[in-house]
Amino acid sequence: MELIVSIIAIVISLISIIVSVVIYRGEVQREKKEATLNAYNVLQEQALDNINQYKKAEIKEICDEWKKIIDWQKKMEKEGSRLNFTAKQQEWIEKYNKLSGYLARIEHFALGVNTGIYDAKTAERAGTYYIINLHKKLEPLIEGKGGAEFYGEFKKLVDKIAKIEKKRRSGGR
Fold first, then answer.
1. DSSP designation for 84
2. Which one, 23, 69, 121, 128, has least CB within 10 Å?
3. In this structure, is residue 146 part of a structural domain?
4. Structural domains counted in the chain
5. For residues 105 and 132, is the Cβ–Cβ distance under 8 A?
6. Is residue 165 part of a domain?
7. pLDDT confidence of 151, banded at 50, 70, 90?
8. Would the CA dihedral through 140, 65, 95, 74 be positive or negative?
């Protein structure tokens, strides 16, 4: 009789442990989704809304002007001349730096998703086409800053989201 009671106690303990683990994992996943939405909202406020003010052609123009300024700066430094940026050059530099800051915030969010800190499926549902199109829109800036070598997390996020979306659309949720 004692053996049966001991076995029942062990079985109940194991069931309790399994239920606790399942509940814990569910809570961790819920918190991860919530953190993803919170981070995406912050990203929206700090970067995405601001990037919406630019067209891809404007971003390309800003990058082209930045390259001209850098070439001019190198020439001036080589000649030993003092750098006096014009107001227009300073304006281009400011625009380029703003776009670079927005891209850095996106890359940081993408790193969070790609490393599992944030939930990829939640990020996909929050902005599938927007994130994919945003990457296309920012290509001139990304390429000008060294491409995927330096901004690979954003590209990985785009690829991951596209894959999740494709799977979701084919019914493989």
1. -
2. 23
3. yes
4. 1
5. no
6. yes
7. confident
8. positive
Q: What is the pLDDT of residue 172?
A: 62
Angle at 69 between CA 65 and CA 75, to 5 degrees: 145
Share of the chain residues as helix, strand and coil, in percent rounded to the nearest 5: 85, 0, 15
Write out pLDDT tens, residues 97-141.
Answer: 999 999 999 999 999 999 999 999 899 888 878 899 999 999 999
The amino acid sitting at 151 is Y
Planar angle of CA 92, 98, 103, nearest 5 degrees: 125
Angstrom distance (rounded) from CA 134 to CA 37: 18
The verdict on residue 148 lying in a domain is yes
User: pLDDT tens across 80-89, in order?
Assistant: 888 888 999 9
Range of the domain at 124: 33-169
Asked if residue 134 belongs to a domain, the reply is yes
Q: Give 158-173 pLDDT, tens digit per residue.
A: 999 988 888 888 876 5
Exposure string of 71-101, with b = 16+ CB inside 10 Å and e = fewer, is eeeeeeeeeeeeeeeeeebeebbebbebbbe
Q: What DSSP state is assigned to residue 158?
A: H
Global confidence as pTM: 0.82
